[in-house]
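Hello Y.,

Per our agreement to keep a running log of every chain we model this quarter, I'm adding this entry. I've kept the format consistent with earlier entries: sequence first, then predicted structure.
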Amino acid sequence: MSPIGILGVTVSSCAVAYSVIRSSFWIGRKLRRFSRRSQHNGGGNADSTDDPPWSVSRHTKNSLNTRLEMSKLVKTFVLADEKRVGIEVHVTNAGAAVTKLLWRDADGVVEDVVLGHDNPLMYLDNACNAPYFGVVVGRVANRIANGEFTLDGKQYKLVKNDNGRNHLHGGKRGFDRQVWSVVGTPTSNKVKLRHTSKDGEEGYPGNVEVTVEYALAEGELAVTFEAFEASQPTPINLASHSYFNLNGHTLAAAAHVAGDARNGMLETVLNHAVSVSADSYTPVDEHLIPTGEVASVSSTPFDLRHLTKLAERIPHSIDGYDHNFVLDVEASRQGKLSHAATVKANKRRIDLFTTAPGVQLYTGNFLDANHTMGKRGVKYPRHGGLCLETQNFPNAVNESSFPNAILKPGEKYVHRMLYKFSNEL
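Predicted structure for the entry above:
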């Protein structure tokens, strides 16, 4: 799903800013430890929590002290596969983001195969994480035309954060820019996060509770979204915005360390083979808003029913994908998992299943190596990653023929994803 513009702020400058704040926080924490030890004459245990500083979002108070205090809310959790060594998932409550996915292939090579940031606080910042790396987006993922909809006879106007024209991924302060709370006690392979969305947040009606659970077991990552306790009818469409690149970061990071700027770029995903289990898709206008039509993929560049190398389609028959594909809608109505997509590259394979009626295939068309610096100093070029965002159809709240997008009081929204990871010889 294409992001809003970088607004003239480079991600590399964000990294420098966060590095400075992190250093300030570390020094301040050391001084506080020393002070406590002096006051208690060495008694008691020093604080061992290595909390990073919080967001430099334009929506926080412009105070370093405030950011440092807020940083105590940000945590990172490491999920390990106890029965199958070789898969490790890192999750932060900053935007409920997946920050790392470490994957050991059949040859024993470990790669981080998701795009993102080294510092979890960067996921909270509108400028630094304009591409929405790894986060959960909502209240409504994807676009709402003209940033408005009518519900029960009342018109609601939302924040227009997509070039001032449409509403995108829940607005400027959507779920991706929130510090989520932790539900219960995380385990070695599972964590559940929760966010309370207030009435009027980014223009949406009513209060609503949302959770996301990440659970890793036997080579599979299960992601479960829930929304409940809506105080009044409201649109809901939650999605994960992870970018995958099965080439990994190692070679590009080594080139960056060696000072090779050109080869410090991540290899693109054009060498990836992709299939999508969809006989139809939803065509869009020039602003990426669905026209309301559901069209057959036959004899079009959108026919990905069989594994196809992206390089065979991009840029020859299409400049890049940023489109919603129609999955098994009937299975979705029944809450059943169905196959959404498969991705293969470098002896690694992902099979994605979902209960959602659609999946947005986005091939990183708006990534720019001049502005998008990621983990380990690696630059992310155009087509440097691909997203498979299982979801309701974009702008469904304004299209009566699309699947229902409204959560009513007393109802529960449930959206499940299942990633199956496998190695190929």
